[in-house]
Amino acid sequence: MTKNGSSSNRTRPSSRAAKISKKNANGNGGNNGVNDNSPKLKIIPLGGLHEIGKNTCVFEYEDEIVLLDAGLAFPTDGMHGVNIVLPDVTYLRENRHKIKGMIVTHGHEDHIGGIAFHLKQFDIPVIYGPRLAMALLQGKLEEAGVADRTELRTVRPRDMVRVGKNFLVEYIRNTHSIADSFTVAINTPVGVVIHSGDFKIDHTPIDGEYFDFQRLAEYGEKGVHCLLSDSTNSEVPGFTPSEASVAPNMERIISAASGRVLVTTFASSVHRLNIILGIAQKLGRSVAVVGRSMLNVIAHARNLGYIKCQDSLFVPLNAIRDLPDEKVLILTTGSQGEPLAAMTRIANGSHRQISIKKGDTIVFSANPIPGNTIAVVNTIDKLMIQGANVIYGRHHGIHVSGHGCQEDQKLMLALTRPKFFVPVHGEHRMLVQHSKTAQSMGIPAENMVIINNGDVVELGQDSIRIGDKVPSGIEPVDSSRTGFVRDDVLKERQQLAEDGVVTVAVAIGTEGKLLATPEIHLKGVVMSADRSLLKKQIVQAIENTLNDRWSEFSRDLGDDQGNEIDWVGVRTQIERAIARLLRRELQSNPLLVLLMQTPEEAPASSQKPTGRRRPRTAARVAS
Q1: pLDDT tens per residue across span 221-258
Q2: Would you tell me the crossing angle of helices 270-283 and 246-256 to the nearest 10 degrees?
Q3: What stretches of 12-76 show up as alpha helix (H) in DSSP?
Q4: Longest Cα–Cα distance in the chain
């Protein structure tokens, strides 16, 4: 059963000072006399390091594990048919008995998108998080049928929650590109660990919810043992602009448009959506919302009060045809060129209800995530070819990052004054630059570590080091979202994309002779020679193998019992002969699928594959 609201193990601010033990306030130096052999706090990132996305972190002390976020990432170009990418959670499956709960910092997909998938593999007793994140997560869990495998509890600024006996967590309001975002202070037996969450310093937040600098400073004064901090924009000097800076530029563009306006942005960018809806209402444009995730976020944000607009502002998508173009604004998903998103389908001409008109103004109010640039550019090109006026790029001032730049990061370091520091949430160069910024703020290089997914950071009361490594990597989920895509399947898909597939169906008798001419099909195979010639060569290769090697696979049992035939061995040799021929003649390595039919009277046991496989080939024995 899901519970929202108050919780018996939540402590209000009035008693929080007593909850922060003196033994956790170690200051910024000095040995407190604890033997280095004492138990260590283990910090284990399973995602979000040396990459953007699938942010997932494990905090482990003795026999207790607390998870912080569990996100997903976009697939790369080579992951054919993959819809989303999750971190490898083998370690959590193996240690499920230790999991006491999860801390959610905010509602972005790269922080909560993996939770429903993980709950299919192991239970999480309780998940704490902000109201908006929990509202979005509730729908995901119900859709996946796993809502009964955890309990959701909402938190508010400065709420403290106890998870297990070793972790006391306080939620500290920060500012980010989504409403209801938090930094967390985790009180542990070795000291206070602060995880910044995703953040930037926004002094004029759209929702009026200000960054709680005072509470961070109080922790810094008492003594923060270790800081884990967002590194996304560590290479960018200065401060990240306020979300409010987008509003005048967006209003100027929309007011100047003479026809329909289509705006695409991240569905979860609640502050941006609030700005766009406010401008539409001011300029008298009716809004049609396209995209399931966009509809879902707007509904929850309005229900919680993070988006404020009149019901009359919205119109069904099929009603816009009855409105003058200059009175229409379409808010849609697809700012990252996602194949199934609305804007991508509109660009491809495959959307059932929207097609581009000459004079449409299309606004991309987002920058491409690393790896998505080509998809976004292709989408923009297609829209422009159809006559749309596409507004995109940093120089228009229609997008600002939700992550802090160098000066934001310095302020986080200055307020918390950590003894130890671990840069997180970013690619390798970002982590390196963030560590340099921390050194400029007075943190010694020996007091910080740059880690990768799977590394185990062992944090003691007077030490920090990288210990062992746990399994890490990815678990791709295909477009049907019915299961994980194994590595061998990904390799086969990649091979199909690169070199095509050759299918050979062959029937062989007990005398080692072909019973019929093999059927051969080539799909996606590029070749300069005549295909019929290659097919003849494949048939010849099969016949030569049978003629030259048959005696190795057929053994006379005597006493009129016939022959015992190693059909698996026959298949393997034929497969090898064809593979060699293809490599020689095609100078490529297409996927080979061998379908071999054997006589019905052959021993059933000898027809079963042994499980041996040639690299980059597939084979099947059919009887």
Answers
A1: 999 999 999 999 999 999 999 999 999 999 999 999 99
A2: 40
A3: 16-19
A4: 97
Q: In which residue are the tokens 């302020």 written?
A: 411
pLDDT digits (tens, 9 = 90+) for 376-419: 999 999 999 999 999 999 899 999 999 999 999 999 999 999 99
Name the more confident of 174 and 544. Answer: 174
CB 503 within 8 A of CB 520: yes
* Structure-token match 């310095």, residue found: 410
Reported confidence tier of residue 81, pLDDT bands at 50, 70, 90: low
Which of 52-83 are b and which e, b meaning 16 or more Cβ less than 10 Å from the residue's Cβ?
bbbbbbbbbbeebbbbbbbbbbbbeeebbebb
DSSP labels, 456-483: EEEE-SS-EEEEEE----EEEEETT-SS
Tally the residues of the chain: 623
Average of per-residue pLDDT across 602-614: 38
What is the secondary structure of 282-345 as a DSSP string?
HHT-EEEEESHHHHHHHHHHHHHTSS---GGGB--GGGGGGS-GGGEEEEES-TT--TTSHHHH
* Conformation bin of residue 73: beta by default, left when phi > 0, alpha when psi is -120 to 50: beta
Secondary structure in 3-state letters for 557-617: CCCCCCEEECHHHHHHHHHHHHHHHHHHHHCCCCEEEEEEECCCCCCHHHHCCCCCCCCCE
441-479 pLDDT tens trace:
999 999 999 999 999 999 999 999 999 999 998 887 776
Neighbours of 196 (CB within 10 A): 25
Provide the 8-state DSSP code for 94.
Answer: H
In a 10 Å sphere around its CB, with 0-12 CB exposed, 13-18 middle and 19+ buried, how is residue 37 labelled? exposed
Specify the DSSP element, H or E, that contains 191.
strand 191-195
- Give the best-scoring range by mean pLDDT among 65-69, 352-356, 371-375: 65-69
3-state secondary structure of 96: helix
Distance (Å, rounded) from C-alpha 64 to C-alpha 163? 9
Question: Would you state the pLDDT for residue 244?
Answer: 96
What's the mean per-residue pLDDT of the chain? 87
The pTM assigned to this predicted structure is 0.79
CA 403, CA 408: separation in Å to the nearest integer?
9
Cβ neighbour number for residue 283 with a 10 Å cutoff: 15
Of 490, 508, 498, 516, which is closest to residue 589 (Cα–Cα)?
498
Query: Token pair of 419, please?
Result: 């003894």
Look at residues 170, 172, 207, 71 and name the one whose alpha carbon lies nearest to residue 412: 172
Give every strand in the sheet of 191-195, ordered side by side. 10-11, 160-163, 167-173, 182-188, 191-195, 226-230, 420-424
